[in-house]
Amino acid sequence: MASQSSFIHTETLYVGARDLVRLVQRQGLPASIAGVAEQLRRDFLRWDDFEKTPRIANHSRDGVIELMPVADAERFAFKYVNGHPKNTREGLPTVMAFGVLADVATGAPRLLSELTLTTAIRTAATSALAARALARPGSRRMALIGNGAQAEFQAIAFRDLVGVRELRLFDVDPAATAKLVRNLAGQGLDLTVCASTVEAVRGADIVTTVTADKANATILTPELLEPGMHLNAVGGDCPGKTELHRGVLERAAVFVEFEPQTRIEGEIQQMPADFPVTELWRVLAGQHPGRRADEEVTLFDSVGFALEDYSALTWVHDTALSLGIGQRIDLVPAQDDPKDLFGLLRQERAVVRAQ
Protein backbone atom coordinates (compact mmCIF):
# COMPACT_ATOMS: atom_id res chain seq x y z
CA MET A 1 0.00 0.00 0.00
CA ALA A 2 1.31 3.47 -0.89
CA SER A 3 2.37 5.61 2.02
CA GLN A 4 0.27 8.62 2.98
CA SER A 5 3.23 10.92 2.35
CA SER A 6 3.69 9.70 -1.24
CA PHE A 7 -0.04 10.12 -1.93
CA ILE A 8 0.02 13.70 -0.72
CA HIS A 9 3.02 14.38 -2.93
CA THR A 10 1.21 13.25 -6.08
CA GLU A 11 -2.40 14.27 -5.40
CA THR A 12 -4.16 16.67 -7.76
CA LEU A 13 -6.98 19.07 -6.92
CA TYR A 14 -9.86 18.47 -9.32
CA VAL A 15 -12.34 21.31 -9.89
CA GLY A 16 -15.11 20.06 -12.17
CA ALA A 17 -17.89 21.99 -13.86
CA ARG A 18 -20.26 21.75 -10.87
CA ASP A 19 -17.44 22.71 -8.51
CA LEU A 20 -16.69 25.80 -10.58
CA VAL A 21 -20.36 26.82 -10.58
CA ARG A 22 -20.39 26.51 -6.78
CA LEU A 23 -17.18 28.51 -6.56
CA VAL A 24 -18.53 31.38 -8.66
CA GLN A 25 -21.83 31.34 -6.79
CA ARG A 26 -20.01 31.54 -3.47
CA GLN A 27 -17.77 34.37 -4.66
CA GLY A 28 -20.36 36.10 -6.81
CA LEU A 29 -19.80 36.63 -10.53
CA PRO A 30 -18.74 40.31 -10.23
CA ALA A 31 -16.15 39.42 -7.58
CA SER A 32 -14.96 36.48 -9.66
CA ILE A 33 -14.43 38.64 -12.73
CA ALA A 34 -12.69 41.28 -10.64
CA GLY A 35 -10.49 38.64 -9.00
CA VAL A 36 -9.39 37.20 -12.33
CA ALA A 37 -8.82 40.71 -13.73
CA GLU A 38 -6.52 41.55 -10.82
CA GLN A 39 -4.60 38.30 -11.25
CA LEU A 40 -4.29 39.11 -14.96
CA ARG A 41 -2.96 42.58 -14.22
CA ARG A 42 -0.32 41.21 -11.85
CA ASP A 43 0.78 38.55 -14.31
CA PHE A 44 0.89 40.92 -17.30
CA LEU A 45 3.15 43.18 -15.25
CA ARG A 46 5.72 40.38 -15.01
CA TRP A 47 5.53 39.57 -18.71
CA ASP A 48 9.22 38.76 -19.07
CA ASP A 49 9.00 36.06 -16.38
CA PHE A 50 7.00 33.81 -18.71
CA GLU A 51 8.10 31.42 -21.43
CA LYS A 52 5.55 32.17 -24.17
CA THR A 53 4.56 30.53 -27.43
CA PRO A 54 1.60 30.76 -29.83
CA ARG A 55 -0.95 28.05 -29.24
CA ILE A 56 -0.88 24.75 -31.10
CA ALA A 57 -3.98 24.33 -33.25
CA ASN A 58 -5.65 21.56 -35.22
CA HIS A 59 -8.06 23.07 -37.75
CA SER A 60 -10.90 21.17 -39.37
CA ARG A 61 -13.76 22.13 -41.63
CA ASP A 62 -16.12 22.83 -38.74
CA GLY A 63 -13.83 24.18 -36.06
CA VAL A 64 -10.54 24.11 -34.23
CA ILE A 65 -9.00 22.25 -31.27
CA GLU A 66 -6.11 23.99 -29.51
CA LEU A 67 -3.50 23.50 -26.80
CA MET A 68 -2.28 26.67 -25.05
CA PRO A 69 0.89 26.30 -22.93
CA VAL A 70 2.78 28.86 -20.85
CA ALA A 71 5.15 28.73 -17.87
CA ASP A 72 7.17 30.80 -15.45
CA ALA A 73 9.90 29.52 -13.15
CA GLU A 74 7.42 27.94 -10.72
CA ARG A 75 4.28 26.89 -12.58
CA PHE A 76 3.42 25.41 -15.95
CA ALA A 77 -0.12 25.79 -17.30
CA PHE A 78 -1.95 24.61 -20.36
CA LYS A 79 -5.50 24.76 -21.67
CA TYR A 80 -7.27 22.41 -24.03
CA VAL A 81 -10.00 24.32 -25.87
CA ASN A 82 -12.12 23.91 -28.97
CA GLY A 83 -14.22 26.25 -31.08
CA HIS A 84 -17.00 24.63 -33.12
CA PRO A 85 -19.81 27.09 -33.99
CA LYS A 86 -22.08 24.32 -35.31
CA ASN A 87 -22.08 22.52 -31.96
CA THR A 88 -25.14 24.33 -30.68
CA ARG A 89 -27.23 22.52 -33.29
CA GLU A 90 -26.21 19.26 -31.61
CA GLY A 91 -26.85 20.50 -28.08
CA LEU A 92 -23.15 21.05 -27.36
CA PRO A 93 -21.36 24.28 -26.40
CA THR A 94 -19.39 26.08 -29.10
CA VAL A 95 -16.44 26.24 -26.70
CA MET A 96 -15.38 23.48 -24.27
CA ALA A 97 -12.20 23.65 -22.24
CA PHE A 98 -10.18 22.24 -19.37
CA GLY A 99 -6.76 23.06 -18.01
CA VAL A 100 -3.86 21.96 -15.82
CA LEU A 101 -1.58 23.84 -13.44
CA ALA A 102 1.65 21.98 -12.60
CA ASP A 103 4.85 22.46 -10.62
CA VAL A 104 7.81 23.31 -12.84
CA ALA A 105 10.28 21.84 -10.34
CA THR A 106 8.72 18.36 -10.39
CA GLY A 107 6.17 18.31 -13.21
CA ALA A 108 3.50 17.23 -10.72
CA PRO A 109 -0.01 18.33 -11.79
CA ARG A 110 -1.49 20.34 -8.91
CA LEU A 111 -4.79 21.36 -10.49
CA LEU A 112 -7.09 19.84 -13.11
CA SER A 113 -9.95 22.22 -13.75
CA GLU A 114 -12.86 22.90 -16.05
CA LEU A 115 -12.19 26.00 -18.13
CA THR A 116 -15.36 26.47 -20.16
CA LEU A 117 -17.09 28.78 -17.69
CA THR A 118 -13.71 30.02 -16.50
CA THR A 119 -12.71 30.98 -20.06
CA ALA A 120 -15.81 33.16 -20.35
CA ILE A 121 -14.86 34.88 -17.09
CA ARG A 122 -11.19 35.38 -18.04
CA THR A 123 -12.06 36.64 -21.54
CA ALA A 124 -14.46 39.22 -20.11
CA ALA A 125 -11.91 40.19 -17.46
CA THR A 126 -9.22 40.65 -20.13
CA SER A 127 -11.55 42.75 -22.30
CA ALA A 128 -12.42 45.02 -19.40
CA LEU A 129 -8.80 45.29 -18.27
CA ALA A 130 -7.84 46.43 -21.77
CA ALA A 131 -10.74 48.86 -22.04
CA ARG A 132 -9.92 50.37 -18.66
CA ALA A 133 -6.47 51.16 -20.07
CA LEU A 134 -7.52 52.22 -23.60
CA ALA A 135 -11.09 53.57 -23.67
CA ARG A 136 -11.88 57.24 -23.08
CA PRO A 137 -12.53 58.05 -19.41
CA GLY A 138 -16.24 58.29 -18.82
CA SER A 139 -17.21 55.71 -21.47
CA ARG A 140 -20.75 54.65 -20.53
CA ARG A 141 -22.40 53.32 -23.70
CA MET A 142 -21.36 50.03 -25.30
CA ALA A 143 -22.60 48.26 -28.41
CA LEU A 144 -22.53 44.49 -27.95
CA ILE A 145 -22.57 42.71 -31.31
CA GLY A 146 -22.99 38.96 -30.84
CA ASN A 147 -25.24 38.00 -27.94
CA GLY A 148 -24.25 34.36 -27.41
CA ALA A 149 -22.55 32.51 -24.57
CA GLN A 150 -19.89 35.16 -23.85
CA ALA A 151 -22.14 38.23 -23.94
CA GLU A 152 -23.41 38.35 -20.33
CA PHE A 153 -19.89 38.06 -18.97
CA GLN A 154 -18.69 40.92 -21.16
CA ALA A 155 -21.63 43.06 -20.07
CA ILE A 156 -21.03 42.54 -16.35
CA ALA A 157 -17.26 43.00 -16.66
CA PHE A 158 -17.68 46.30 -18.49
CA ARG A 159 -20.34 47.43 -16.03
CA ASP A 160 -18.18 46.82 -12.98
CA LEU A 161 -14.63 47.44 -14.21
CA VAL A 162 -15.17 50.16 -16.83
CA GLY A 163 -18.40 51.88 -15.77
CA VAL A 164 -20.63 51.03 -18.75
CA ARG A 165 -24.28 51.71 -18.00
CA GLU A 166 -26.01 51.40 -21.38
CA LEU A 167 -25.87 48.43 -23.74
CA ARG A 168 -27.04 48.48 -27.33
CA LEU A 169 -27.57 44.88 -28.46
CA PHE A 170 -27.59 43.17 -31.83
CA ASP A 171 -27.33 39.58 -33.03
CA VAL A 172 -28.42 37.98 -36.29
CA ASP A 173 -30.24 35.45 -34.05
CA PRO A 174 -33.06 37.28 -32.22
CA ALA A 175 -33.34 34.39 -29.74
CA ALA A 176 -29.77 35.05 -28.57
CA THR A 177 -30.60 38.70 -27.89
CA ALA A 178 -33.80 37.71 -26.07
CA LYS A 179 -31.77 35.34 -23.90
CA LEU A 180 -29.28 38.10 -23.11
CA VAL A 181 -32.05 40.53 -22.17
CA ARG A 182 -33.58 37.95 -19.81
CA ASN A 183 -30.27 37.21 -18.14
CA LEU A 184 -29.34 40.87 -17.69
CA ALA A 185 -32.70 41.94 -16.29
CA GLY A 186 -32.25 43.69 -12.96
CA GLN A 187 -28.47 44.00 -13.42
CA GLY A 188 -28.41 47.80 -13.45
CA LEU A 189 -27.91 48.16 -17.19
CA ASP A 190 -30.06 50.11 -19.64
CA LEU A 191 -30.67 47.68 -22.52
CA THR A 192 -31.67 48.64 -26.06
CA VAL A 193 -32.35 45.93 -28.64
CA CYS A 194 -31.26 47.12 -32.08
CA ALA A 195 -32.24 45.97 -35.56
CA SER A 196 -28.74 46.15 -37.05
CA THR A 197 -25.08 46.64 -36.32
CA VAL A 198 -25.35 50.15 -37.76
CA GLU A 199 -28.05 51.06 -35.25
CA ALA A 200 -26.22 49.44 -32.34
CA VAL A 201 -22.88 51.19 -32.83
CA ARG A 202 -24.30 54.67 -33.46
CA GLY A 203 -23.14 56.91 -30.60
CA ALA A 204 -21.34 54.09 -28.74
CA ASP A 205 -18.22 54.81 -26.70
CA ILE A 206 -17.17 51.16 -26.85
CA VAL A 207 -18.01 48.49 -29.43
CA THR A 208 -17.57 44.84 -28.48
CA THR A 209 -17.82 42.22 -31.22
CA VAL A 210 -18.05 38.64 -29.98
CA THR A 211 -19.41 36.47 -32.77
CA ALA A 212 -18.77 32.77 -33.34
CA ASP A 213 -18.83 31.98 -37.06
CA LYS A 214 -15.55 30.68 -38.46
CA ALA A 215 -15.48 33.12 -41.37
CA ASN A 216 -13.85 36.31 -42.61
CA ALA A 217 -16.76 38.56 -41.68
CA THR A 218 -17.01 42.35 -41.90
CA ILE A 219 -19.20 43.19 -38.94
CA LEU A 220 -17.60 46.61 -38.57
CA THR A 221 -16.64 48.79 -41.54
CA PRO A 222 -14.74 52.10 -41.50
CA GLU A 223 -17.80 54.29 -42.04
CA LEU A 224 -19.27 53.04 -38.73
CA LEU A 225 -16.36 54.39 -36.70
CA GLU A 226 -16.80 57.54 -34.66
CA PRO A 227 -14.01 59.65 -33.13
CA GLY A 228 -12.88 58.32 -29.76
CA MET A 229 -14.43 54.86 -30.05
CA HIS A 230 -12.75 51.91 -28.36
CA LEU A 231 -13.21 48.62 -30.23
CA ASN A 232 -13.05 45.31 -28.37
CA ALA A 233 -12.78 42.63 -31.08
CA VAL A 234 -13.17 39.26 -29.37
CA GLY A 235 -14.66 36.88 -31.94
CA GLY A 236 -11.77 36.58 -34.38
CA ASP A 237 -9.40 34.03 -32.89
CA CYS A 238 -8.03 31.72 -35.57
CA PRO A 239 -6.79 31.85 -39.17
CA GLY A 240 -9.67 32.60 -41.54
CA LYS A 241 -11.88 34.06 -38.79
CA THR A 242 -12.18 37.84 -38.51
CA GLU A 243 -14.87 40.42 -37.69
CA LEU A 244 -13.50 43.73 -38.95
CA HIS A 245 -12.94 45.27 -42.36
CA ARG A 246 -9.20 45.92 -42.81
CA GLY A 247 -10.01 49.62 -43.19
CA VAL A 248 -11.03 49.63 -39.52
CA LEU A 249 -7.55 48.49 -38.54
CA GLU A 250 -6.00 51.17 -40.73
CA ARG A 251 -8.02 53.82 -38.85
CA ALA A 252 -7.20 52.58 -35.33
CA ALA A 253 -4.33 52.30 -32.89
CA VAL A 254 -4.16 48.52 -32.47
CA PHE A 255 -3.28 46.68 -29.25
CA VAL A 256 -2.77 42.92 -28.92
CA GLU A 257 -1.97 40.29 -26.30
CA PHE A 258 1.00 38.34 -27.73
CA GLU A 259 2.01 39.69 -31.12
CA PRO A 260 3.41 36.47 -32.67
CA GLN A 261 0.11 34.69 -32.02
CA THR A 262 -2.15 37.58 -33.02
CA ARG A 263 -0.34 37.93 -36.36
CA ILE A 264 -1.60 34.42 -37.14
CA GLU A 265 -5.07 34.48 -35.60
CA GLY A 266 -6.27 38.01 -34.96
CA GLU A 267 -7.83 40.76 -37.01
CA ILE A 268 -4.28 41.74 -38.00
CA GLN A 269 -3.91 38.51 -40.00
CA GLN A 270 -5.38 40.68 -42.78
CA MET A 271 -2.50 43.14 -42.57
CA PRO A 272 1.15 43.11 -43.73
CA ALA A 273 3.76 41.74 -41.35
CA ASP A 274 5.04 45.24 -40.51
CA PHE A 275 1.61 46.64 -39.59
CA PRO A 276 2.24 48.41 -36.25
CA VAL A 277 0.72 47.02 -33.07
CA THR A 278 1.42 47.37 -29.35
CA GLU A 279 1.24 44.55 -26.80
CA LEU A 280 -1.18 45.36 -23.97
CA TRP A 281 1.30 44.61 -21.20
CA ARG A 282 3.36 47.63 -22.29
CA VAL A 283 0.40 49.93 -21.62
CA LEU A 284 -0.29 48.33 -18.23
CA ALA A 285 3.40 48.68 -17.31
CA GLY A 286 3.51 52.34 -18.32
CA GLN A 287 5.90 51.72 -21.23
CA HIS A 288 3.32 52.96 -23.79
CA PRO A 289 0.70 55.67 -23.29
CA GLY A 290 -2.14 53.67 -24.85
CA ARG A 291 -4.73 56.15 -26.07
CA ARG A 292 -2.99 59.35 -27.21
CA ALA A 293 -6.04 61.60 -27.67
CA ASP A 294 -9.78 61.65 -26.96
CA GLU A 295 -10.51 61.53 -30.71
CA GLU A 296 -8.29 58.51 -31.38
CA VAL A 297 -9.92 55.18 -32.23
CA THR A 298 -8.36 52.33 -30.24
CA LEU A 299 -8.72 48.63 -30.97
CA PHE A 300 -8.00 45.67 -28.72
CA ASP A 301 -7.50 42.72 -31.09
CA SER A 302 -8.24 39.97 -28.57
CA VAL A 303 -7.61 36.34 -29.52
CA GLY A 304 -7.06 34.82 -26.09
CA PHE A 305 -3.57 34.01 -24.86
CA ALA A 306 -2.24 31.23 -22.60
CA LEU A 307 -1.00 33.68 -19.96
CA GLU A 308 -4.64 34.62 -19.35
CA ASP A 309 -5.42 30.96 -18.66
CA TYR A 310 -2.42 30.75 -16.33
CA SER A 311 -3.94 33.65 -14.40
CA ALA A 312 -7.40 32.09 -14.42
CA LEU A 313 -6.10 28.69 -13.28
CA THR A 314 -4.10 30.37 -10.51
CA TRP A 315 -7.24 32.16 -9.35
CA VAL A 316 -9.32 28.95 -9.49
CA HIS A 317 -6.67 27.01 -7.56
CA ASP A 318 -6.28 29.59 -4.81
CA THR A 319 -10.01 30.31 -4.51
CA ALA A 320 -11.00 26.64 -4.50
CA LEU A 321 -8.51 25.91 -1.71
CA SER A 322 -9.72 28.86 0.36
CA LEU A 323 -13.38 27.78 0.00
CA GLY A 324 -12.78 24.05 0.37
CA ILE A 325 -14.21 23.34 -3.08
CA GLY A 326 -13.03 20.47 -5.31
CA GLN A 327 -11.72 17.01 -4.60
CA ARG A 328 -8.34 15.30 -4.41
CA ILE A 329 -7.78 12.73 -7.15
CA ASP A 330 -4.99 10.28 -7.96
CA LEU A 331 -4.28 11.55 -11.47
CA VAL A 332 -0.68 10.39 -10.96
CA PRO A 333 0.10 6.99 -9.38
CA ALA A 334 1.34 7.01 -5.79
CA GLN A 335 4.30 4.64 -5.45
CA ASP A 336 6.36 3.45 -2.51
CA ASP A 337 9.24 2.98 -4.96
CA PRO A 338 9.08 5.59 -7.76
CA LYS A 339 11.38 3.41 -9.88
CA ASP A 340 9.01 0.43 -9.73
CA LEU A 341 6.06 1.44 -11.89
CA PHE A 342 5.41 -2.22 -12.77
CA GLY A 343 4.97 -2.92 -9.06
CA LEU A 344 1.68 -1.01 -9.15
CA LEU A 345 0.18 -3.86 -11.16
CA ARG A 346 1.24 -6.37 -8.53
CA GLN A 347 -0.26 -4.21 -5.81
CA GLU A 348 -3.59 -3.88 -7.61
CA ARG A 349 -3.68 -7.64 -8.34
CA ALA A 350 -3.12 -8.37 -4.66
CA VAL A 351 -5.97 -6.05 -3.69
CA VAL A 352 -8.33 -7.75 -6.14
CA ARG A 353 -7.42 -11.23 -4.85
CA ALA A 354 -7.95 -10.10 -1.26
CA GLN A 355 -11.49 -9.05 -2.15
Question: How would you explain this protein's 3D organization?
Answer:
The structure is a single chain. The longest helix has 19 residues, at 116-134. α3 packs across α11. β14 (253-256), α9 (259-265) and β15 form a beta-alpha-beta unit. The strands form three sheets. An eight-stranded parallel sheet has the order 9-8-7-10-12-16-14-15. 42% of the residues are buried. The chain is α/β, with parallel strands linked by helices. It has helices spanning 4-10, 17-27, 29-44, 116-134, 151-161, 174-184, 197-201, 246-251, 259-265, 280-284, 306-323, 343-354, and strands at residues 12-15, 56-59, 64-71, 75-83, 97-103, 109-114, 141-145, 166-170, 190-193, 206-209, 216-220, 230-233, 242-244, 253-256, 278-279, 298-301, 327-329.
Offer a few descriptive terms.
single chain, 355 residues, alpha/beta
